[in-house]
């Protein structure tokens, strides 16, 4: 997994996994159990404070409270603090959801006593010396020393360049399946530094929609990605969640049947999420590869802050926001961004407001020309094209010329290419343009 850092738009962070084997369990178990104890202490203390004082304790308060605990002294101080930070983040997101009207959310709860909690080592908590990783514990304990393979910190970019990363964070996670610990995995995040991007080249604009992704490039190339399968998977995911929720509401919370249903629900969702993420990954990779292959230097996507306006659905209620939020746009754009940087293409976001109701060719604006079934029929220059491609073309024009209204397209459009998900090949393949209808 990788992502781009907030500190610099072209700084790349990437996490690599190293399986450790079950024989390491004896070394890590006490540490992971100590982290679990800190978590449970956070839950207990927060609940008490909420009950007696009607407020949630702050992060600093929790950290100060547990400093003297025995479990705190098992871990490196930064690792212990990281556990509190994770708890605090979970509480914050719970409160945010609660305030947004999701009354069904529960606050983060106690974990079973024997739960092996993921332990994080921050920058000062580990050291690297001659192919070994030294994970520090508290001052009174011996550190854990792990051998690491040669070139463990080298990442090859798609163009063949090898980049050496600086490790910035390490985590040890337990892989648990059906309540059995199957393995321990070391996750190391590397800072690959700022990747130099192209300074000269074409510009591409993207319009993400629930079932279609439209792309227009400044040399006239047009692409339409049909993502119906992805949308169908998202809808199926909601259906499964609702079905389990209905079944669970009929039995007592915490009962044996309720627990069985919860486990089955999580299993079903995990399986579905793997398929959803695979499709998203294939899509964003394909987009970045097209840009790299066609000499694009700058890609522009819609600003996701605009999504809440829900003008596309014409609904202003809760239902509308649910419909929009079904699609994991943020995750998709984050994936698109780092995959672009890896291929030396800069991606940024800009508002696409109004681009879907302006003609991509002549720049005349009229919402009524966006017809049903995804067709744009311009009443001024008589252009007929797929509505989302019209949107991405107008969007590109805004990026190139500063505005899309009243501006003529400065280049000719090529016939659009249409791509569809191929279930057997597990990737997007080009199909005849009729498939988009
Ligand atoms: Zn027109």
UniProtKB/TrEMBL annotation:
Residues spanning the signal sequence: none
Domain Cas12f1-like TNB: 330-393
Molecular function as annotated in GO: DNA binding
Key word Coiled coil present: yes
Tree of life domain: Bacteria
Protein known as: Putative transposase
Coiled-coil residue windows: 262-296
Keyword Coiled coil belongs to the record: yes
InterPro entries assigned: Cas12f1-like_TNB
NCBIfam families (alphabetical): guided_TnpB
Keywords, in A-Z order: Coiled coil, DNA-binding
């Amino acid at each position: 997994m990788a992502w781009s850092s907030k500190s610099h738009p072209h700084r790349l962070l990437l996490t690599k996994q190293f399986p450790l084997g079950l024989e390491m369990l004896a070394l890590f178990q006490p540490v992971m159990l100590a982290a679990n104890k800190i978590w449970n202490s956070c839950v207990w203390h927060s609940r008490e404070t909420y009950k007696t004082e009607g407020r949630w304790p702050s992060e600093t308060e929790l950290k100060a409270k547990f400093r003297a605990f025995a479990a705190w002294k098992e871990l490196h101080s930064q690792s212990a603090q990281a556990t509190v930070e994770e708890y605090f983040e979970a509480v914050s997101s719970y409160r945010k959801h609660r305030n947004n009207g999701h009354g069904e959310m529960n606050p983060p709860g106690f974990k079973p006593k024997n739960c092996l909690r993921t332990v994080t080592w921050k920058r000062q908590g580990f050291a690297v010396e001659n192919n070994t990783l030294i994970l520090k514990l508290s001052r009174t304990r011996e550190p854990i020393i792990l051998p690491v393979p040669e070139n463990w910190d080298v990442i090859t970019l798609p163009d063949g360049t090898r980049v050496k990363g600086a490790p910035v964070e390490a985590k040890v996670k337990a892989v648990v399946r059906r309540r059995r610990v199957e393995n321990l995995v070391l996750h190391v995040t590397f800072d690959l530094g700022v990747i130099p991007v192209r300074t000269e080249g074409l510009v591409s604009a993207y319009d993400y929609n629930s079932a279609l992704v439209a792309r227009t490039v400044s040399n006239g190339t047009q692409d339409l990605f049909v993502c119906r399968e992805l949308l169908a998977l998202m809808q199926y995911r909601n259906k499964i969640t609702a079905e389990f929720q209905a079944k669970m509401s009929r039995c007592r919370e915490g009962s044996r049947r309720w627990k069985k249903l919860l486990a089955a629900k999580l299993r079903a969702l995990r399986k579905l999420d793997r398929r959803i993420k695979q499709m998203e990954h294939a899509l964003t990779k394909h987009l970045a590869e097209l840009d790299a292959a066609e000499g694009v230097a700058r890609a522009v996507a819609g600003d996701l802050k605009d999504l809440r306006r829900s003008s596309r659905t014409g609904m202003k209620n809760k239902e509308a926001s649910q419909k929009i939020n079904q699609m994991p746009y943020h995750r998709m754009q984050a994936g698109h961004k780092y995959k672009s940087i890896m291929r030396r293409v800069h991606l940024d976001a800009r508002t696409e407001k109004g681009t879907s109701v302006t003609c991509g060719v002549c720049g005349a604006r009229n919402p009524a020309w966006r017809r049903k079934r995804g067709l744009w029929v311009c009443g001024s220059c008589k252009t007929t094209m797929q509505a989302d491609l019209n949107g991405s073309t107008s969007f590109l024009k805004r990026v190139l010329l500063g505005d899309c209204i009243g501006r003529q397209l400065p280049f000719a459009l090529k016939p659009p290419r249409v791509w569809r998900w191929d279930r057997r090949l597990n990737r997007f393949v080009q199909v005849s343009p009729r498939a988009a209808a």
